[in-house]
Design a protein that fits this description.
Length: 425
């Protein structure tokens, strides 16, 4: 049996590259964002405006993806800031994945700008793995106008780790025999799925590099960190048996969150935000034919503390009003009424394919009322699908119509609004 050959292909600074290519090729601009200190970021007046992507010249000023825009502007006052264009990014991503599928039919998209490609058995078509990767990288540049990094290995984990090595526009290998020399010397924070909290736990155990983690006693890791400890220990040793899955996995839950422009300090401020989140969550569930029986709210304080609370429903539903009622009850139970909040989220889990309801004398809900609410929501969905999500909104949002459906995907991505993308994009 042939050894597996897996590529991880990652667009370099995707949002900025895609914006730059569109401006040059479609709008005829002579200035290329990739050649000057520039970033993609949201409204600079909004407190949750962060850097989504940066150019290499911007990186030289110490600007980092994820940092607040105001900090980046302090590092480089002449920084050029462009707004994100998610419709454009969706279309560019489609072209990107379509090109990958020309190399292999087995492509698993991991995010909007990266994917795994199973290249096993394609040597007669594309030559050696490195030659195939160079061909792929060159075609992305020539046909789509942006650069990618390609990581090559025999499993998904190591291919992704290789793809994160030196950037941009590079091809790197990380086969099992190369793990000790290329991966083990790296800081443990660079291992896939090791975040800041996990890094702190590992450092308390004297583990600072990926090699330290690979050599650690897995029994101690399991005792201190549970299943996650065992998982990252296997990762540190280069072990991963996941197959490249060309079809996305079925959702286990539906959730949206939103950072508010100002602190939420009253329930009356919170309820409309929760309703707007429930609108988008429930609409996605109905579109996928799913119902849920567990509602969870997530609250983030203005000091970045987290509050979570959940409850089981008397059945499984995708009715907006029912999810909203549960979310408000959970909010009232979880929030102390004093601590300012900067972010609210709603999630529905414990999914089923059909709605069901346990009726009682005190809820006021009858089978007829349940059916009417479901039909009403489905009618609203149909109108929004045909005429746009703003064609109908609840009266509570009459004074603030833009906020009636919040969280999750940007409006452009949620509604499928895209811009034409040139063949050379």
């Amino acid at each position: 049996m042939a050894e597996r050959v897996i590529f991880h292909v990652d667009a370099n600074s995707a949002f900025l590259s895609w914006s730059a290519a569109y401006r040059v090729k479609m709008l005829g601009e002579t200035e290329d964002l990739r050649d000057i200190p520039s970033v993609v970021a949201g409204d600079r007046e909004s407190r949750h405006s962060i850097i989504l992507a940066k150019s290499m010249p911007a990186k030289k000023f110490g600007i980092q993806t994820g940092e607040p825009l105001f900090q980046a502007m302090e590092k480089c006052p002449k920084l050029k800031v462009v707004a994100p264009d998610y419709g454009l990014y969706v279309e560019a991503s489609r072209h990107f994945v379509a090109l990958l599928r020309q190399f292999s039919p087995v492509v698993e998209q991991y995010s909007i700008d990266e994917a795994w490609v199973d290249m096993t058995g394609t040597e007669r078509l594309w030559g050696s793995p490195r030659l195939a990767a160079d061909t792929l990288r060159r075609r992305v540049w020539e046909e789509l106008g942006f650069t990618v990094n390609v990581g090559i290995s025999s499993n998904k984990l190591l291919a992704k780790m290789a793809g994160d090595f030196e950037k941009p526009n590079k091809v790197h290998t990380l086969f099992p025999e190369e793990v000790a020399g290329k991966m083990w010397p790296l800081p443990v924070r660079e291992l896939f799925l090791v975040g800041p909290a996990t890094e702190r736990k590992l450092k308390m155990l004297g583990i600072y590099t990926i090699g330290d983690l690979a050599a650690a006693d897995v029994r101690v890791l399991k005792k201190r960190m549970g299943k996650q400890g065992e998982t990252i220990w296997h990762f540190a040793n280069g072990r991963n048996a996941d197959m490249v899955a060309p079809e996305p996995m079925e959702n286990k839950g539906y959730g949206n969150s939103v950072t508010t422009p100002t602190d939420v300090v009253t329930s009356q401020q919170a309820y409309p935000v929760l309703l707007s989140l429930c609108e988008t969550v429930a609409a996605r569930m109905r579109k996928d034919g799913k119902c849920g029986s567990c509602v969870t709210i997530h609250l983030r304080t203005n000091e970045f503390g987290h509050i979570g609370h959940q409850s089981r429903l008397n059945g499984a539903t995708n009715i907006t009003a029912e999810i909203f009622r549960a979310a408000c009850r959970l909010f009232d139970e979880a929030w102390d009424g004093v601590t300012p909040l900067r972010q609210l989220g709603v999630q529905v889990t414990q999914l089923a394919h059909e709605p069901y309801q346990q009726y009682d004398l005190f809820s006021g809900m009858t089978p007829e009322k349940f059916e009417r609410k479901l039909r009403l929501d489905e009618t609203v969905d149909a109108l929004r699908d045909k005429f746009g999500e703003d064609i109908i909104r609840r009266a509570k949002f009459a004074r603030n119509p833009e906020a009636h459906m919040a969280g999750g995907l940007d409006r452009a991505r949620r509604t499928g609004v895209t811009k034409p993308v040139p063949q050379e994009f």
